[in-house]
Structure formats: structure tokens, C-alpha cells
Amino acid sequence: MSNAALLCIPERWRLAHLNYAAAHGYFWIPCPLCGYEFGGHEWRHIDGKRAEVYLNPAEPATGTAICPPCTRAGKGEEPPGVTDLICFCAECVRRRDRNGIKAEWAP
Ligand SMILES: [Zn+2]
Ligand SMILES: [Zn+2]
């Protein structure tokens, strides 16, 4: 799945994101830090700040994460021992390219 399409949905269009999450099997949950509801396709690292995510790569819809505003505010960190995150932020794409790692699924 291309990440480009969903990035065209402005973050403030919450209903569009809710529909996108429902249509593609992503979770839709309140952020555990602030209660802002968001979809599993929306979490990402922002400006090098870490999103805090707990995803099952085989079943992304079952995970949890913190919302983009909290990530942007620098509230996230990667939980210890979590190694299967597939993030499509520029930083992570570059790191995978450098290491020759192929992403299997898109958040
Ligand atoms: Zn939040
Ligand atoms: Zn990332």
C-alpha cells in the first residue's frame, strides 16, 4: 500500500481518517496520553521525534500508539525490546535503504 495517498488527508479531517482506518483494518483508539482519537495509519515519527508504538506486525489493527500531536510534542519513545516497527517517516526510510531492509507492510 502506498503511504502517499493517506498523507494527502489533512490531519484535522478526523472523519476522513476514521473512515480510512475502518476501511483498511487499522486501529482507531484514543491516545493513551491525551485522549485524541486517531488511526493506526497515522502514527509516525515526526521531525526525528519517536512515536511510541506497540504494534503486532502480523496484525497492525491490534496495536496501540500515541497520537501525532503527542509525538510532535516529543512525548514518545520507543519501548525497549520492540524491533518490528515499520515507520515511513523520512528518517526510517533512509535507514532501511542504507541497511537494505525491505518494509513488508505500511502503517
Ligand atoms: Zn496524544
Ligand atoms: Zn520513523
Series of H and E elements:
HHEEEEHH
Overall geometric form? globular
Rg (C-alpha, Å): 13 Å
**Oligomeric assembly:** single chain
How many domains? 1
**Unreliable residue runs:** 1-5
**Distance linking N and C termini:** 9 Å
Average pLDDT number: 80
Q: DSSP strand (E) fraction?
A: 5-15%
What is the strand tally? 4
Fraction of residues in helix = 25-40%
Summing up helix and strand content along with how strands pair, one would put the structural category as alpha+beta
Please outline what is shown here:
This protein is 28% helix and 9% strand. The chain is of the alpha+beta class and 107 residues long.
Structure, explained:
The protein has 107 residues and is of the alpha+beta class. The chain has one domain (3-82). It is 28% helix and 9% strand. A two-stranded antiparallel sheet has the order 1-2. It has a two-stranded antiparallel ribbon with strand order 3-4. It is globular and about 35 Å long. The chain binds zinc ion (2 copies).
Q: Mind sketching the topology for me?
A:
Elements: H1 4-7, H2 14-24, E1 28-30, E2 37-39, E3 53-54, E4 64-65, H3 68-72, H4 90-99
Antiparallel strand pairs: 1-2, 3-4
This protein binds zinc ion (ZN) (2 copies).
